[in-house]
Amino acid sequence: MQNTSKKPQMSKEMLLPKLADYILKNGMGGASLRPLAKAAGTSDRMLIYHFGNKEQLITDVLAYIAGIYSAVLDAGMGEERAATRQQCVARILAQGREPAMQPFLVLWWEIVAGSARGVSGYREAGERMMSELLLWLETQMPVDDPDPVGGARYLLTIIEGSMMLSAVGHARTAREGLVASGL
Amino acid sequence: MQNTSKKPQMSKEMLLPKLADYILKNGMGGASLRPLAKAAGTSDRMLIYHFGNKEQLITDVLAYIAGIYSAVLDAGMGEERAATRQQCVARILAQGREPAMQPFLVLWWEIVAGSARGVSGYREAGERMMSELLLWLETQMPVDDPDPVGGARYLLTIIEGSMMLSAVGHARTAREGLVASGL
DNA sequence: ATAAATATGTAGCGAGTGCTACATGGGCTT
DNA sequence: AAGCCCATGTAGCACTCGCTACATATTTAT
Lengths: 183, 183
What we know:
Two copies of one chain form a homodimer. Chain A has helices spanning 12-26, 33-40, 44-51, 54-75, 85-96, 102-117, 122-140, 148-167, 171-181. Chain A is mostly helical. In chain A, helix 2 (33-40) packs across helix 3, helix 5 packs parallel to helix 8 (148-167) and helix 6 (102-117) crosses helix 7 (122-140). The longest helix of chain A is centred in the middle third of the chain and has 22 residues, at 54-75. The interface between A and B is large, with 48 and 48 residues.
């Protein structure tokens, strides 16, 4: 008989995008082996086979997500720099409100929580994603900014603080804080 | 025979402190009925009896924790105000580094994550805790501050941004951001 | 005194968890 | 052709999960 199932030969690399997609949509809470396997078109048996155990799988998927994060960042915004810090912050906050960014944002807080609690793999992913965002932010600073390096760190702090406040229903508080600071 | 077990008459009010204590120590991840019941000196059966279901229990415990949050805030710092915004921020960040605050901080990010994902009870608790912190922060602003209301919102944004960056291993980034901003 | 309401213990159900044992197919090397 | 290794399917184990059925003791109301 002919080879009907052309030896799928599933590998980590083929699985990671689907796993990342599922986790972005459903969060870490629903990230158990059987649903993940179903979403990736395989079985829990094979996930363990490829990744060794669940902890390693999560670590790998989070690293993968951190890896594609900067691509999403770039895709979401034009190339021209902002003219002022105020405009820079406004743009990024606006981007954070876009629907396409929501899965990242919602997952982000779970990564922060896991990192704060010391869960393996979370801290590395979170640190990397913040490093990416920081680098990217430096490239987005106004060309005439007197201190783009320090300024990027300052704006990053404010942006993340604003996002956290928004996440717990204090978007207004964050907005008023920005106004009071001149940003 | 005499009444050996003096009719315990467990009530929500008696259970909440122990439940809150356990959750502060072990986080939401370990907050399943049987361990919670054991920590509170009762049974999973009785937790459901008193709270109806787990979701309501979590909601109630988070509300209780939010309720005692401001007391912890006050207890952790003296009464005299800061002289400058810079000193105000430095004090609060120092307080956040104290061991006694760690359970709150670690739990805090789980509340933010739950709030961002829309889990019932988390948003209300998070919003309330932030409101408490904001009010308290207003009382801690320098007496001669030109805009204590807006300034408190600005400082709150920066403080929370700094704490988040620290949680993912970017404490240095946050510190450099503060320096660049003059705070 | 009787009945109703409250409070609690025991046991278990059905579903889901991470993970493993065992078998087996198909492609590879020798 | 023979043997070996990689990839995968099937079945299941021991455990935890939230929650419930049932019985029962104790207190309160009539």
